[in-house]
Amino acid sequence: MPLRLVSRPGEDGAVAGLLDRACASPSALVLEGEAGIGKTTVWFNALDLARQRAFTVLSARTAETESVLAYAGLADLLGTVDVSAWTNLPPAQRLALERVLLHSDDGRHETDRRAVAAGFLSVIEGLAQQAPVLLAVDDLQWLDASSRHAVAFAARRLRGRVAVLVTERIDPAVGSTCAWLQLPRPEDLTRVRVRPLSLGGLTAVVSDRLGRSVSRPKMVRIAEISGGNPFYALELARVMGTGPAGAGAPLPSTLADLVRTRVGSVTSDVGNFCWQRRV
């Protein structure tokens, strides 16, 4: 479950600005950063804020293992939409969306990708006439190809009150792989780098998730090694054990050492389990 304790003024301000702009015209925000930096936490908080502002929220969290499943992401985006939103669509678009949601499939014809994309756009624009819409995708880089086509098609043609919010995992050596996401006006899409947490932020995250305090010297060292990445900070804190603050195993000096420590722990646990079963 994502943590919601730590304030991120820059990222939270960007989200609030996105929702403000979307009340008048289409707007998009890409939250980018390394794995574990906190993009999903900001994303979840944005969904909560949008609902408080009476936005209709269509959301999907993608996974690398599902990136080969046709329309998996699009089905999640449309999963909470009432069927009445597409009952008046042209028959081809309505049938295409019903197939995406596995509500109908006669098996005789392939799903028309253009009909899916056009139907998706029609649903979004129809919902936006009733209330502002937030279209939100977490880990956009793993969105399956079929859903990517539909989202790209719709985003380039948006005209109503729609906010598009996505997170993207960035590899510094590669850069963005999601340049396909475009709005009718390029200036309406903003990219914001999710920044590392401060020492105070990391301390709050570790204390809340682990249910125990960690001494300041240990937290300073954790902050140095993790570079402010809350995921790595939590893993570092876990290797210290569950004893009182300041006790436990010495901290790994690098993230590579941390991975080796965690893998070694898992390997040992599996070995013990297998030995007990054999005995």
CATH C-level class of the largest domain: Alpha Beta
Strand content: 5-15%
Quaternary structure type: single chain
Q: The CATH topology of the largest domain is what?
A: Rossmann fold
Q: Percent helix among the residues?
A: 40-55%
Count of β-strands: 5
Pattern of helices and strands? HEHEHHHEHEEHHHH
Specify the CATH architecture of the largest domain.
Answer: 3-Layer(aba) Sandwich
Instruction: List low-confidence stretches.
Output: 242-247, 266-279
User: What would the principal axes of the Cα set say about the shape?
Assistant: elongated
Number of domains: 2
What order do the helices and strands come in, and which of them pair?
Elements: H1 9-22, E1 27-33, H2 39-52, E2 56-61, H3 72-78, H4 91-100, H5 113-128, E3 133-138, H6 145-155, E4 162-169, E5 189-193, H7 199-210, H8 216-226, H9 230-238, H10 255-278
Parallel strand pairs: 1-4, 1-5, 2-3, 3-4
Helix pairs in contact: 1-2, 3-6, 4-5, 5-6, 7-9, 8-9
